[in-house]
Design a protein that fits this description.
alpha/beta, Spore Coat Polysaccharide Biosynthesis Protein SpsA, Chain A, 7-stranded mixed β-sheet, 10 helices
C-alpha cells in the first residue's frame, strides 16, 4: 500500500492545546491530526468532528487536546492488505486509519481518497481506430467511426477514459481512415493526462497486423482493443486473470443469449424426435479485447494484414499459453445503426 508521505505534518504532542490542533488540521490538509508521545506512540486522533463536538460542549480552545481526541482509534499494521484497510474504513465509516508497527509506534497513515485512486500502470494499450465503419452508412462518410459521438463524447474518448480510470496512461492509436481527424482531436494525449502515440497504417492491416508498427516491443503484457466498443469491464481483473493462469495471450469473451423465434425441430433421418419452442441459446463471443505478452509479436509479419483470431490460432498451434476471460459486464460492439442507436440510449445509464 502507498502510505501518505505527508503524515508527519499532522503530528501533535499530547501537551498541545485544542487551538494548536485546529491549526495543524488547517495546515495539514488531511482533515486529521495524530496525537503522539515523545516516542511516537499513538495516543489518539482528532478530526473536524472531534473539534465540533468539543465546541458544542463548550470546551475552551486552550484546553489540552486530550479533552477532545479519540483515545482508542482504529489502527492497522504495515502488513495489512489494501483490501483489509478499505473494508475497515467502509465498516467504520471513516476516511483515515493510522498505521502502527509491532511496538505500537506510528509509521504511517492510510487515507481513503488515496487508496481509492487507481494504481498507475505501465502496461501499454493499443486501440484499433483505423476501420472504415462502412456499415454505419452516411455517419462515417465524413467522420471516422471512433469519433462518432455517444452521449457527449466520441466513442474513442469514452474508451480512453475507461482505461484512465483503471490507471493506464500509455496509449497507441492504430489509425488509417481519416486519421488526421483522430490525430487532431487527441493530439499527444496531454489534455487527458495520457501519452498517445500513433501507428499509421498505409493500408488496412486487420485487427492485429498494425502491431508490427509498434516502435519498440513493450516490456509488459499489453492490451489491444477495438476502437468501436463500449464496455464497463474491469481491466485490472483481466491483468490478474492473465497472471494467475500464466497466459501469454488472453481473449476476453462475452456471454450472450439468443432466443430463436421459431420452434426448433430435432430429427433422426425422417423421424421427428423433439420440438422445442423458441429456445434460448447461451454462448460466448469474441469481445474484441485482448491482453498479449510481448512474445506474441514474433508471430506478426511486418507490413502484412492479420486479424486477431488468426493470431490466436497461430498461438494455439505453436503451443503458446492462451486463455479465455469470460465476463458479464456491460459491452456493446457498435457495428451497425441499431447498435449505435442503442449505445446512445444506454450511455447515461452506464456511464454515470
Amino acid at each position: 500500500m502507498n502510505r501518505q508521505k505527508d503524515w508527519r505534518s499532522v503530528l501533535i504532542h499530547q501537551e498541545a492545546t485544542i487551538l494548536e490542533t485546529i491549526q495543524v488540521l488547517d495546515r495539514g490538509g488531511l482533515r486529521i491530526a495524530l496525537v503522539v508521545d515523545e516516542a511516537y506512540h499513538l495516543l489518539g486522533v482528532v478530526t473536524d468532528g472531534n473539534v465540533r463536538r468539543g465546541l458544542l460542549n463548550q470546551i475552551g480552545l486552550q484546553e489540552p487536546v486530550s479533552k477532545i481526541m479519540t483515545a482508542h482509534p482504529i489502527t492497522v499494521q504495515a502488513t495489512d492488505s489494501r483490501e483489509h484497510v478499505l473494508s475497515l474504513m467502509k465498516a467504520s465509516q471513516i476516511e483515515h486509519i493510522p498505521v502502527l508497527d509491532d511496538q505500537g509506534i506510528l509509521i504511517g497513515l492510510e487515507v481513503l481518497q488515496a487508496l481509492t485512486q487507481p494504481t498507475a500502470k505501465e502496461n501499454p494499450v493499443v486501440l484499433m481506430a483505423g476501420g472504415l465503419g462502412s456499415r454505419l452508412g452516411v455517419l462515417t462518410e465524413n467522420c471516422p467511426k471512433p469519433l462518432l459521438q455517444v452521449g457527449p463524447k466520441p466513442i474513442l474518448e469514452v474508451i480512453l477514459e475507461s482505461f484512465l480510470e483503471h490507471g493506464f496512461n500509455r496509449f497507441y492509436f492504430s489509425v488509417n481512415y481519416k486519421k488526421h481527424m483522430i490525430q487532431e482531436y487527441f493530439g499527444d494525449g496531454s489534455a487527458w493526462g495520457a501519452e498517445i502515440r500513433y501507428l499509421e497504417e498505409t493500408e488496412r492491416m486487420g485487427t492485429a497486423g498494425s502491431l508490427s508498427l509498434l516502435p519498440e516491443p513493450p516490456q509488459l503484457p499489453f492490451f489491444v482493443m477495438n476502437g468501436d466498443l463500449l464496455t464497463r469491464i474491469n481491466f485490472q481483473h483481466i491483468l490478474n486473470f492473465h497472471a494467475k493462469h500464466q497466459a501469454q495471450a488472453t481473449l476476453c469473451v462475452r456471454r450472450v443469449e439468443q432466443t430463436i423465434p421459431f420452434g426448433v425441430v430435432e430429427m433422426a433421418q425422417h423421424r421427428l424426435l423433439k420440438i422445442e419452442e423458441k429456445p434460448t441459446q447461451h454462448y460466448f463471443v469474441n469481445a474484441g479485447i485482448y491482453l498479449l505478452d510481448p512474445v506474441l509479436l514474433s508471430l506478426i509479419p511486418a507490413q502484412q494484414p492479420l486479424d486477431m483470431p488468426d493470431l490466436f490460432r497461430q498461438a494455439i498451434e505453436q503451443g503458446y499459453a492462451t486463455a479465455a476471460f469470460p465476463f458479464l459486464d456491460y459491452w456493446i460492439d457498435i457495428g451497425q445503426m441499431g447498435d449505435y442507436d442503442r449505445a446512445q440510449r444506454e450511455y447515461t445509464q452506464i456511464y454515470k
